[in-house]
Amino acid sequence: MADLIAQQEAGCGTSATRRTAGRGGREMTRFRCVPIETATADRFRRTGFDDRGNPIRRIIATASGQFPCRHCLKLAKAGESMLLGSYDLRQPLGIYWTPSPIFLHERDCPYTETVDAVAPIVRANPLVSVRAYDADHLCLYDLGQVCPGGDVAEPLRRALDDPRTLFVNIHTARPGCLLSRVEGVTD
After folding, report:
1. What is the distance between the alpha carbons of residues 41 and 108, in angstroms, rounded to a whole number?
2. Do 14 and 110 contact (CB within 8 A), yes or no?
């Protein structure tokens, strides 16, 4: 039920997106959480080097740690081999661009967008940062918010419903690692 409410409460606010009925009949704009590209995941696995030329680190996931894969958007299970490397974000461009450390399953995993649902790696994170960007890739400070991942639906909806927002990046709040880009679903 909580996932259904989160799906209904999250949205995106551009005229090119399709709206669906939300809680109380309120229209919600459709959205998707976008993982890193398969070509990037394959390159990390194949070459052993990240986007900054650093050697990829291999880490075994533990039951007490969080190891969120940015390609399938799911947490690793204890004992799974994960890769850790630096990823060059595709957006934002310009002043707010930054590389980000990311985890990735060492084995092949499916490219998994989540549509009208917050990605599992976001919901599972104890503290996330919602960062909205406009068409010029400038950060919209007034829409930014830090909250538990399980409570991200409302700040995400607020950011995406704002007509200035082109896309949102959700990061881990403490280390600042990208979890997922979020964008509206166009018709």
Report:
1. 8
2. no
Q: Which residues contact 137 (CB under 8 A, 6 or more apart)?
A: 91, 92, 93, 94, 95, 96, 97, 166
- pLDDT by residue (tens digit) across 107-148? 999 999 999 999 999 999 999 999 999 999 999 999 999 999
- Output the pTM of the full model: 0.84
- Whether cis (ω within 30° of 0) applies to the bond prior to 92 is yes
Integer CA distances (angstroms), 177 to 22, 42, 79, in order: 30, 20, 22
Report DSSP letters for 148-181, one per residue.
Answer: -GGG-HHHHHHHHHSTT-SEEEEEETTT--EEEE
3-state helix, strand, coil in the chain (%, to 5): 25, 35, 45
Secondary structure letter of residue 71 according to DSSP:
T
Q: Are 140 and 119 in contact (CB under 8 A)?
A: no
Q: Please, which residues bridge with residue 88 across strands? A: 99
pLDDT attached to residue 16: 37
What DSSP designation does 46 have? H
Q: Helix 2-9 and helix 153-161: axis angle, to 10°?
A: 20
